[in-house]
Amino acid sequence: MQLTVNGQRREVAHPDEMLVWVLRDELGLTGTHYGCGIGACGSCTVLLDGQVTRACLTPASAAAGREVTTVEGLARGEQLHPVQRAFLENPLQCGWCLPGHLMSAAALLERTPNPTPAQIEEAAGINLCRCGGYNAIRRAVARAAELKREGL
Q: Where is the 2Fe-2S ferredoxin-type domain positioned along the sequence (predicted)?
């Protein structure tokens, strides 16, 4: 089976496996983290046709014919995505949740370029951070919105 991941067609041998394992083990895209395995923590978040999706709950076969974007696919060559740059300015303690927050923030900014604090809170709230870095996360998402509006 073929998947389109980060703009590239990739052959996968295990379409019945969960997408998180296909991305990590078959395709070597380890930026997508495995956390809880029940879709609650969000560390496995990817975008499927631009929509926030829990890769630990999604069979790879469900992504056939659709565009999968992982944290590795946010950057364009050497140019980091605004959410990547903003989180570098507002680092988190351990970073295990970071891929999920990056992907949720990227999806938010794609549909809402100028999010309100409440919209940022709602988008960030779907992912857990065991270190309690929620203030840094909210700052980073707001900063990413600024960078995106500035075209940086």
A: 1-74
